[in-house]
Amino acid sequence: MEALKEKTIRAGAAKLSGQAGRALIRLGSIIILARLLDPSEFGLVAMVTVLTGVLEILANGGLSAATIQRAEVSDDQISTLFWINVAIGILIAVLCLMVAPLLKAFYHEPKTAYIIAALAPVFIFTAAGVQHVALLQRELRFPILSALEVGSELAAAAVGIGMALAGWGYWALVGSALAPPLCLTLGAWLATGWMPGWPRYDRTVGSMLRFGGTVALNTLVVHAAYNFEKLLLGRYFGTDALGLYSKAYELINLPTRILNSAVGGVAFSALSRLQSDPVRFKNYFLKGYSLVVSLTLPTTIFCAALADDIILVVLGPKWTGATPIFQLLAPTILVFGIINPYAWLLQSTGFHKRCLNTAFVIAPIAIGAYLVGIPYGPTGVALAYSTAMCLWMVPHTFWCLHGTPISPLDLLLPIARPMLSGVAAVIAGIWVQHLIIDAVPYPLVRLAIVGTAMLAVYSWTLIFVMNQKSFYIDILRVAIKSSDPAVRGG
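Predicted structure:
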């Protein structure tokens, strides 16, 4: 148990560090590109990425999850899945070319046809690396995977900023989307050293395809539900409104997405190895869940409380219209931080069909909210979306946890502790902001001062008032111990 614990925490620390690096690079890229390009140019590309995001899920086919989740997997099985991924990627690339005229007609924007055609190779690049990345995840080789992901993010930033400075306009965003999958796939091939053999189909591959197909369909439904509003905003309000909304959504969701990706990838791999041991499974899940919630909730609360200054510092004065959208989306992102980890639980224990069923319920709830809010523009959509997600959170929790080793009561303290600590931090932040708002005219300085005060209050409340000192010390102790080459066996 200690060996898996240390390996998991070491992998989690590497993944979290890598995701933090990616977040900083991504944030730096956003800061620069937001000043070089207009909201309408971001909105134009977002019109296309609403569709390509769906197609990217199909290119994966859920087959990476099938490789990771299975207790034992053979080279023949992985090779077969590899060729299936590649075939799907090629078909989707061709599909992009075929739907280009339809996209142009839907948005009444000719440029969208050229953008989706240019993005077609992304799906071939992604498909060719799905199984190689899955092998790195399965073996908990997250230090290497994190390095590859950071390198890919650097490539995206360099290409995007370089093209924007050269005057390429919205094509800079297209170029930055092409670079990461190509870099990640090449790096994963080199890191694993694995070469696919010829496909050999058997019954075990069939079961993996069914599992992967269910996971992919679940991801597809959720992604479509969570992004359908962008399709509506682009169609009825144009590139400016969609640019403001999509960038506000990306920015408020960045901390939660990065943290859930960092811990979630490690948690799914580790929990899949503990399916037959309910006691250890429950212990691992609750610790991972506590860590994710204690990090995502305060960052989202911080963003909502300091939205005005964050938008000015990160995006610049021409993006002030994104501020109310940014704030209204905060409750949605808080709900995501609480419920997203349920996917690790359900998929690692084989409850992937329930995961899919919940997606089929979330989709009409979210789309219904968008339809209610769309007459009022981006702010109306954001308000309706957040309201619907907050109302859905409790029934979703009970449904997901039913019949699993985890009960709703088990999650009460992991949610309540960071939430109460976050409330204390917000109160302190508002008080400090009130004291300095007239004396400090610079948004960046205000953010630094208020952010430091909120972090100090949150950390002190969570660690000492909520008595979580031993929990974080244990994680830190194992992470330090695991980083010692002598402990790892050289």
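Summary: Residues 482-490 have pLDDT under 50 and may be disordered.
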